[in-house]
Design brief:
The chain is mainly beta and 424 residues long. The chain has helices spanning 4-21, 308-311, 383-386, and strands spanning 28-29, 34-41, 57-59, 66-72, 80-87, 108-110, 112-115, 124-129, 137-144, 150-159, 164-171, 181-189, 202-208, 215-217, 223-225, 230-233, 241-243, 249-252, 263-268, 273-277, 280-281, 298-300, 314-322, 330-334, 347-351, 356-364, 366-376, 379-381, 394-402, 411-420. The strands form 5 sheets. Strands 18, 19, 20, 21, 22, 23, 24, 25, 26, 27 and 28 form an 11-stranded mixed beta sheet that branches. Strands 1, 3, 5, 6, 9 and 10 form a 6-stranded mixed beta sheet that branches.
């Protein structure tokens, strides 16, 4: 009997380990009844659609923190709990114990919920404010159901500014890339941080439009000014350039009383309102066309009531792409609405009767940005359908990580954003 508590602890430990092994430390939904997972900085306006176009990153000192929202389409009230995992800069679970980065027990009941109002597709809407944490860095919040099964995971970051970053965007210096690519030059002032080896102590990651599938890293300073404690990153070998891409296509479904932008037809039944979009085509040879977009993000909104959280309905949306059938390629409609994942949910299939690639996706009302991706083998390529243009409006951000000597974790000590050709 003396060994009974030890046995219980071992069983709990193995169960917990098994649950963690089933988690992908990235933006993923594991249960089909979960939809529209949102994570964003708290601006104090829970129904302002603009709250959703900011990435899930904020200052460690920000007492407003981050807000998590999601819907359960099972139309049953379910209980959920959240747990937070600390990760390395490469999004691998770190070796830190919970007590090293949390102030309280790392299991948070999600108690704020509302039932949808006057929607054809019923759902429960959940909302949760993430707790304050002790340290900066990369984190993943995982939400579990009452059976301790993970239902989704979302990445977020907290930064503690200990350096100053100055960045600017411009056309690429590459002769062949000057009309298609964009270049980000930056400097780091580390006067407030004691670096033993400034050339190698910092890890820098640069992202386009806050996407983890559009990153650059491995930067080494092109010039070190030790007396000024300044690092300069101005390159000539294109390592800090990104293909410009194109402005995102979008659909507007904020009102279902009539056809919004991008909608060709609507089919109404007692169960749902289906949206059929205009057929899309390749934009590689049409030249650049200025178009205001959300840089791939999406907002949830319901025009009539202004309460997108519970009044926005779910609508099946039919996407079609006109391109030649290619047995060696897979095509996807992609965007922040699918967390930039390429999976069966957003994969198009060729319809020989229409000669089009098609996919139908259930989406919540709002304004949704999207584009198309061609994937051959393990290589995904947006440029083959959308084109690359240096004039495309894009957002970039720079994340700087530092692991102190004898430290157990990588700290996010610097963060900044830089805009290119911003028009909104």
């Amino acid at each position: 009997m003396r060994n009974f508590p030890i046995i219980i602890l071992l069983l709990i430990s193995r169960f917990t380990l098994g649950q963690e092994n089933s988690i992908l430390f990235e933006d993923q939904i594991y249960k089909p009844q979960i939809a529209t997972v949102l994570l964003y900085p708290n601006i104090g306006e829970p129904e302002n659609p603009k709250r959703l176009i900011s990435p899930p990153i904020t200052s460690l000192q920000n007492n407003n923190g981050l807000i998590l929202e999601f819907d359960d389409l099972s139309n049953d009230y379910n209980t959920y709990k959240a747990k937070i995992f600390h990760c390395t800069s490469d999004w691998i679970k770190s070796n830190l114990n919970d007590i090293e980065y949390t102030f309280e027990y790392n299991e948070y009941p999600i108690t704020e919920q509302e039932q949808s109002f006057s929607t054809k597709v019923p759902y429960y809407h959940y909302r949760f404010q993430l707790p304050k944490l002790k340290i900066s860095g990369n984190f993943v919040v995982v939400v579990y159901n009452s059976n301790r099964e993970p239902v989704f995971s979302r990445r977020f970051m907290l930064y503690d500014s200990r350096i100053n970053i100055t960045a600017k965007a411009r056309f690429s210096q590459g002769i062949q890339q000057q009309f298609s690519d964009q270049q980000i030059d930056f400097t780091i002032d580390y006067k407030a941080l004691n670096l033993a080896a400034p050339q190698t102590d910092l890890k820098i990651i640069m992202r386009q439009n806050f996407r983890w599938d559009k990153t650059r890293t491995g930067f080494k300073p092109s010039n070190v000014r030790p007396f000024d404690k300044l690092l300069e990153y101005t390159f000539f070998d294109l390592e800090n350039t990104f293909p410009g891409g194109n402005e995102f296509r979008y659909l507007d479904s904020r009102s279902l009383s009539g056809r919004g932008y991008g909608v060709s037809d609507m089919e109404r039944t007692s169960d749902y309102t289906k949206l059929i979009l205009f057929t899309d085509k390749s934009r590689t040879d049409n030249g650049y066309l200025q178009l205001d977009d959300l840089n791939g993000m999406f907002i949830v909104d319901q025009r009539e009531s202004g309460r997108g959280s519970t009044d926005a309905d779910y609508t099946p949306v039919l996407f079609t792409l006109k391109t030649e059938e290619d047995a060696h390629a897979a095509y996807y409609v992609n965007g922040g609405f699918n967390y930039w994942n390429l999976n069966e949910r957003n994969r198009l299939t060729f319809n020989p009767d229409t000669g089009l690639y098609e996919v139908e996706i259930l989406l919540k009302q709002g304004v949704i940005n999207y584009d198309y991706v061609q994937k051959i083998g393990n290589t995904a390529n947006e440029s083959s359908i959308e084109g690359d243009y240096a004039s495309t409006e894009n957002d970039y951000d720079i994340l700087v990580y530092y692991k102190p000597p004898a430290g157990r974790s990588e700290l996010l000590v610097g963060y900044t954003t830089v805009e290119w050709n911003r028009r909104r």
